Amino acid sequence: MIQYNTIVIKIGSSTLTSNEGKLDVNNLSRLAAETADLIKGKCKVILVTSGAIVTGAERLGLATKPKTIPEKQAAAAVGQSLLMRQYEKAFERSGIPVAQILLTRDAIADRERYLNARNCLTTLLNEGVVPIVNENDTVAVEEIKVGDNDTLSALVASLVGADLLVLLTDVDGFYMESEEKVAFKATLIEEITAEVEAAAGHPGTQLGTGGMVTKIQAIKLCSDAGIPVVIAHGRTEGLLKKIAQGEQVGTLFKAKEKKPESRKRWVAHGLVISGSVVIDAGAEKALLTKGSSLLPAGISEVKGKFKPGELISIYNLSGKEIGRGLTNYPSDEAEKIKGQKSSNINSILGYEGSPEVIHRDNLAIL
Hints:
Layout: E1 6-11, H1 13-16, H2 25-40, E2 44-49, H3 52-60, H4 69-92, E3 98-103, H5 105-109, H6 111-126, E4 130-135, H7 149-160, E5 164-169, E6 174-177, E7 183-186, E8 188-189, H8 194-199, H9 212-224, E9 229-233, H10 239-244, E10 251-253, H11 262-269, E11 273-279, H12 281-290, E12 299-303, E13 311-315, E14 321-326, H13 331-337, H14 345-349, E15 363-365
Parallel strand pairs: 1-2, 1-5, 2-4, 3-4, 5-9, 8-10, 11-13
Antiparallel strand pairs: 6-7, 9-10, 11-12, 13-14, 14-15
Helix pairs in contact: 2-4, 3-4, 7-9, 7-11
């Protein structure tokens, strides 16, 4: 029996690319058939797919993977429709419609567009459609790029409040190193420790834009959102059904037990961080145990430049990030009122400002 109601599956470039550097239609079709079986078992599935640039490069007859932004955008523009055609043909065999969703970071950062995207995806899932998501590479520039599909899939999973994220790649799980310096596959990882991050190594495969480093970053995002993640080999037949039924496949990364509500997930990971504050022990305790707002009295240091309404990180005195929130004050005013009682804000700034630097409704604990 399927254990999850909603699953996001990220299909990496290595899973969709043959040894000749071309789109592997056979593996795409197999994954579509396995996904269709999940849907028939009353599971809702979103696919986050790579492969548009590779497909476009093949169609354009390029000898190597595009390197410049214009080359990548051109290849993506050509390849996206070809890739979607293959997905549509593959799912047609099971009578399941598909929908193309192209996202950029700004669509997630803007609250109204975030809600529109979530409502669209939810409606598609309720109608039995498979949303197929990719970054909108044809228009994305540095300021609005998500950057890699590991992160995009985690953002999508958080967006819809998924129950599981599956990262399909070219390895059969996450490998750690024993005390004897022998590599072994970890079947279960309870939390992302410094040891786990060190084992992730460095990103960069010939075909993909990410590696284990980006996967660990995506897993940390999902953990904060209360979503477990599985890393598994994308060419293992029957793995999707096994994963959905809760069988041990690849490596399972557990998540924090409590899933935050949608707005908190958006605050924590939907926006780009603009600056940070360091808080004292009393403020840390109030935030973690009482669900309090962040008052100026608890702030000991202000870092970076930010504007009202922007996202800032909250660090404790040990340098650990414990939360993120939308600030009511710009950085220069936050600097002036740090360590002060809220009742003193008027005399310091010359106007009656908010008593909180970050209201608890706009604050997410990590």
